[in-house]
Amino acid sequence: MKQDMIVILDLGSEENPRLAREIRALGVYSEIYPHDITLAELNALPNVKGIILNGGPNHVVDGVEIDACSDIYGCGLPLLQPGHKGGAPWPTDAAQRKAVLSEFVFDACGAQPNWNMENFIADQVELIRRQVGDKKVLLALSGGVDSSVVAALLIKAIGKQLVCVHVNHGLLRKGEPEQVVEVFRNQMDANLIYVDAVDRFLNKLSGVAEPEQKRKIIGAEFIRVFEEEARKLDGIHFLAQGTIYPDIIESGTKTVKAVKSHHNVGGLPEDLDFALVEPLKMLFKDEVRACGKALGLPDSMVYRQPFPGPGLGVRCLGAITRDRLEAVRESDAILREEFAKAGLEGKVWQYFTVVPDFKSVGVHEGVRTFDWPVILRAVNTVDAMTATVEDVPFALLQKITQRITSEVKGVNRVLYDLTPKPSGTIEWE
């Protein structure tokens, strides 16, 4: 890496990710490291210009107050110690906080604002080529933001040495499998294997109503399909994954318990012995999107909404049927289209439709119907731990209702979910 770097040592602060993001927003690269990094390990890092020892509420581990190694203090690099060893706490005012960071990063450390996506991409292309050589890399390409950006970056670095496998399990949104093929095979000339596994997945899910069981079936079957495709290929030495920096941070540090473990293609058999390629593992989500834009991916892919791993399988409530799944897919497409027309695309964090497994009496063109309701959900959140409901204009809800009830087969009602998180969750299953 050619960019200057500010190292943040984790001394128990819960705001280390925010701090790293703020430094990167100044145009200077920053990474978080454990409090007990040795001087030798520090010296092995490229272009370190300064160190922030960030104190915080989790500064006691197993009854002992943690601190940096003593020789870090005498390493000769500029140090900033907010909330640690008498250091002043961070200002609460955003402008003052930015001023403190700017003074330290630029004046005290002399760092250059040379962290940008163009430099990041150039660095990663060089690192990928060095790691992979002339070998092949396998990637499970879901069409989600992370896997799509990884694919675009690897195509730029190694071209046809990348083998992408896109498994269509029938639970994607309308047009998404076709978009993956169009963008990667037709536009980017990727080495793409398209697997139509719709019948296979839906047959496995037939009659299964319990949400966790559905999730397990979908996850396990995906691994089996991916494994079968991998075994057909020769010369694969690497597996690419869309791991990003929050995945690593959330998996836990010495001062923060794991939020969750992250396995992008978890559970593959040990005899599929691949080394990992994870070129996005030091990027935050907004940086991943910026990288995708710089690599030329379409906005519809780069700014794709958060989407559950089991896809529409957890929005077709209860036992999945093909006709009800199609009602979810079509109503979701209408909702997304109308939100885009109304200027809400990109302003509302997540919006989708749900179709439950019950029916009600209705009337269509003077004839009695007995059909499903569609539930609309639109929420905003910062961390997905809590969420508020979007105040959608009533006229827009009326328009969406009219379109869904007239265009989506088997639907006669539309409902709007007003429940925040808590007491509800973002998804229904």
Automatic annotation (TrEMBL):
- Top enzyme class, one word, equals ligase
UniProt keyword annotations, A-Z: ATP-binding, Glutamine amidotransferase, GMP biosynthesis, Ligase, Nucleotide-binding, Purine biosynthesis
What Pfam families does the record tag this protein with?
GATase, GMP_synt_C, NAD_synthase
Q: Which residues bind ATP?
A: 142-148
**In its keyword annotation, does this UniProt entry include Plastid?**
no
Q: In which pathway does it act?
A: Purine metabolism; GMP biosynthesis; GMP from XMP (L-Gln route): step 1/1
Question: Can you supply one Gene Ontology CC term for this chain's record?
Answer: cytosol
| Boundaries of every GMPS ATP-PPase domain copy | 115-304
Q: Which PROSITE patterns match?
A: GMPS_ATP_PPASE
**EC assignment:** 6.3.5.2
Q: Does the keyword Lipid metabolism apply?
A: no
Where on the tree of life does the source sit, at the highest rank? Bacteria
Q: Which interval of the chain is the signal sequence?
A: none
Gene Ontology MF term list: ATP binding; GMP synthase activity
The role this protein plays is: Catalyzes the synthesis of GMP from XMP.
**Which PANTHER family does the UniProt record give?**
GMP SYNTHASE [GLUTAMINE-HYDROLYZING], GMP SYNTHASE-RELATED
Q: What's the protein here called?
A: GMP synthase (glutamine-hydrolyzing)
